[in-house]
Amino acid sequence: MVRLVPSFPPYEGPHQVGTVEVEIPVSSLLDGLREDEGIRVKFEQKERTIHTILFRIYYPATGAHPHENVEGKPHEKGWGDYLHGLIGCGKRKPVYWVPEPYQNEFLKAYLRFGGLSKEWLVNWIGGRASLLPHFLNNITIPAIANSPLEKQPSTTSHFPTMIFSHGLGGSRLAYSHICSNLASYGVVVFAPEHRDGSGPVSIIRKKNANGEKEFTTESVPYVNIPHNLTEEMSEGRDYQLSTRLTELSLLYKAVQSINAGIIPKGTIFGPEGEEVDKDDSQLSMFRDKLDVKTPGRVIWAGHSFGAATMVQFIKSIYYMGSEEWKTQAQLFTLKEHEAAELRSQITKKSPLLLLDLWSLSLLGSKRTYWLWKKPLPQVIPLDTGEKDGEDACRLLTIMSQQFYTWKENMWAVKWVLSRNPGLRDGAVREIFDYDPITGKEIDTLTSSTTASESATSAHEGEVTGENNDGYRPPKLYYIKQSAHLSQSDFNLLFPIMFRKAAPDPQKVLGLNIRAAVQWLREAGFRQGLAPYGQVEGQSGDDEIFGCAEVEEGAEVKGEKKGEKKVLEGWVRLGLHEEKIKKKAVKEAVREGMGAGGEADLEAEGDLEEGRERSNKI
Fold first, then answer.
1. Contacts (Cβ under 8 Å, ≥6 apart) of 575
2. What pLDDT shows up at residue 232?
3. Which residue from 29, 218, 232, 524 has the least number of CB within 10 angstroms?
4. Which residues, in sequence order, are bridge partners of residue 46?
5. Distance between the two ends of the chain, CA-based, in angstroms?
6. In b/e form, how buried is each residue of 537-559, taking b as 16+ CB within 10 angstroms?
């Protein structure tokens, strides 16, 4: 049948991809909670109760027949498997990109998110009288629902495991293509759906107290927060971040439970909400298969606000319990035993993938700013005892051209990647001349360099590639002719909306995936990941970082031009801080960042107007 709906290209890696959707009651993950009780997130005068966490797992699969369940029993198909929406019917019940079973709610929420303010118009366009639902509700992803997990590469290896945080306007399926492609190379990816009001909508399913099979549902709508640096924005984003950080800590507990073979009570699977409390569930195949026990092995990743979430989460856990931590206002905190589990996992060697980092949400308040001045653990030099021969870069940042041309955000990104994000260049480095929160001048905030510090730059050694002190320079690249949403599914599915900004979305995502795979293989996951160059039908080799065009000032000492074939549009960036003299971070951001970070579905046009176009993200 000729498809009349948007579709995804095949995945690039050698493995088929399976996927399963999971929702777990918080009361099954934390001690001391009643069965119907959640965890409360408090911020200022606001309070939110998290009852469940919802996530989708993307994983390398055997490619077994999708109509056989884990026990090998055939799935009983109905006409609904073939006639869903009457368009795009297949031989098996597919995984729909607009989340089931609440597709109409999601479609209407996206219409509101896209700017439709008239509710009657939202109901008409998103209703059955319109053709739009028949097109959008039938978009499918090329993954096999509930397929068995692929066999491990060896008896001693485990699958690399990633947690991926979505940006504004996202969901557990909005980044399905990059998550599934990583799975096709051998990564198990957990993609949560945040219930913080950053997505178009999220539906919480809770078990009825009377024991009936049907679930009680609660809708979490999109919360419209201003995108300029105001007190309202700061409070709103802090509230969202506090929710996201709590959810990530809960998801980490869930991942550890799944790997231990423990299925939390009340766990429900898939759109149908099947509840399984026994060990022979869809999750039992992950038992002792995930690389999550060894410290520093969980991979953390996110896009836009999701990337900012990961920066805040990594720093929060790494510095939690320190003397300075005890004196600062916090976005979230954990009980000591829970904090200890995460602190043992998040180390200087924890891989961190940042896609189009949106920095505005990290500059808003005192709760985020004190950590803004702290370096990410991935850029802190390794001590002698921490070096083990696998000391490659653990921090990869890939920017779109749209965010690259947004100079104030790029300035902030480079500070996030800095070893000394609170310091300036100079023999005596000045910490910001102005308080970025109040904009007032700060007296005598200077820091003399020590013998162990460079006297020239917080990024000394990064451009030259020198690494004698245990410092591992982060990798920073951008892709030409790419939009902010090119790293999500939106650009692939709706290319006409980005035709000027990103005419080749498949190429852009391909570069992101290829870079992530090589970076992970270099970071100690070589055994678990297939190399790019050995996949049938793909050209080139496993190398991408040495094939980049080079921004002026980003040359590596001793590098010879012309040794590698240059990948068109793939550009390495220098890590030198840009100078903003006598200006507060907050003021610089207010002038240039403006409205950024939102996954607006409007056409983005030319990228020449970087700052103006960034307001539509």
1. 414, 417, 418, 459, 462, 463, 473, 474, 476, 554
2. 83
3. 232
4. 43
5. 36
6. eeeeeeebbebbeeeeebebeee
